[in-house]
Design a protein that fits this description.
The chain is α/β, with parallel strands linked by helices. It has one domain: Aldolase class I (TIM Barrel). About 40% of the residues lie in helices and about 10% in strands. The chain has twelve helices and eight strands. The chain has an eight-stranded mixed sheet. Strand 2, helix 3 and strand 3 form a beta-alpha-beta unit. The longest helix has 17 residues. The radius of gyration is 19 Å and the shape is globular. It starts with 5 loop residues before the first helix and ends in a 7-residue tail after the last helix. The relative contact order is 0.15.
């Protein structure tokens, strides 16, 4: 996985070091649209939605000026449905190397031209959803032809040499036996891979949760195989501590101590702030500090261990150490 340049690394570390004691979020997820091209079995979004109240690209500058996160996710819905998504990224970055910016997408609307534009605008990481290493992905996402599109496009764009594409695989009861084969697919396509955990809170459906001893055995076998394949390239994006916590989440059926609303938060497409994408308690931009004071200390939800949380459920020294080793450069750019 490509490392961030030395000077930008210092800026990211500096901002994080200031945000942590000041109570500012480290990560903000901008859900730039509620519409999506898929109807995924494990998601509460799907299909077209009313986008008339979406923030405009220039609006994101105001949110960045107030929240000043180190890392931003640009997500949805499907963010590539926004014809102005490149302008959104430009306004988030504002010509600076920070924040570290991740585009989370199913890539149904990705093209080589769009990829190049987004890379030039400042996307540091392209997170591409992949649930199965074959056409079963289409059935799970309810979008025929999606896997064939990824099979063509991902390795072709990876060959450009930017090393910024990460397959994002949400572990469910349906694909828990495919963990290592998904890693095989990432290697075959020349990209990186990151795992996250299914949460029933999003849809209310527990069918895709891991609840049986057999499923937990498959989980541990798969993650053990992935751990054995680590190397200096950092192509397994999750740290070992994150994968261990993912195991515990499924074994215990939950993970207490969530810091949603404080260390991370979501900005909805219409501009309202939420502690996370699955807690519909809304705050205005001006109330972000009240969210951290009012919601986070009383939050008892333990129902998810999604990627945005998994990176932040750590002490600051651990968080800093893992990210410096994994993503931040120690060489001058």
């Amino acid at each position: 996985m490509r490392k961030v340049g030395f000077l930008d690394s210092l800026r990211i570390i500096g901002r994080g070091s200031r945000n942590w004691p000041a109570g500012r979020p480290l990560v903000v997820s901008f859900e730039v649209t509620d519409s999506c091209t898929c109807f995924c079995k494990h998601c509460d979004h799907g299909g077209p939605r009313d986008d008339s109240h979406n923030l405009k690209p220039a609006d994101y500058r105001r949110y960045m000026a107030v929240l000043r996160p180190c890392v931003v996710q640009v997500s949805g819905g499907e963010p590539l449905l926004r014809e102005d998504v490149v302008e959104i990224v430009r306004n988030i970055k504002s010509g600076s190397g920070i924040p570290y910016t991740i585009l989370v997408s199913n890539w149904s609307n990705m093209t080589e031209e769009k990829y190049r534009q987004l890379h030039a605008a400042g996307v540091d990481q392209f997170s591409v959803s992949l649930d199965f290493p074959d056409e079963r992905h289409d059935e799970f996402r309810r979008l025929p032809g999606l896997y064939a599109r990824l099979r063509d496009l991902v390795p072709r764009l990876a060959a450009l040499g930017c090393d910024d594409i990460v397959l994002n695989s949400c572990i469910t009861s349906e694909n828990v036996g495919e963990i290592n084969r998904l890693a095989d697919k990432a290697r075959e396509w020349g990209v990186n891979i990151c795992y996250s955990a299914y949460s029933a809170r999003r849809t209310g459906c527990r069918d895709y949760a891991l609840t049986t001893p057999a499923q937990l055995t498959l989980l541990n076998q798969g993650l053990d195989q992935v751990e054995s394949r680590r190397d200096a390239s950092n192509w397994i994006v999750n740290s070992s501590s994150t994968l261990d916590a993912t195991r515990r989440f499924f074994e215990r059926g939950g993970a207490p101590g969530c810091k949603a609303g404080h260390r991370f938060l979501v900005v909805r497409s219409d501009g309202w702030l939420q502690p996370c994408s699955m807690v519909f308690q809304r705050y205005s931009l001006e109330e972000y500090s009240r969210m951290a004071e009012e919601f986070t200390p009383t939050n008892t939800c333990d129902e998810c261990y999604v990627s945005i949380r998994s990176y932040l459920d750590k002490t600051f020294p651990q968080l800093l150490g893992e990210n410096v080793r994994g993503f931040l450069s120690v060489k001058a750019s």
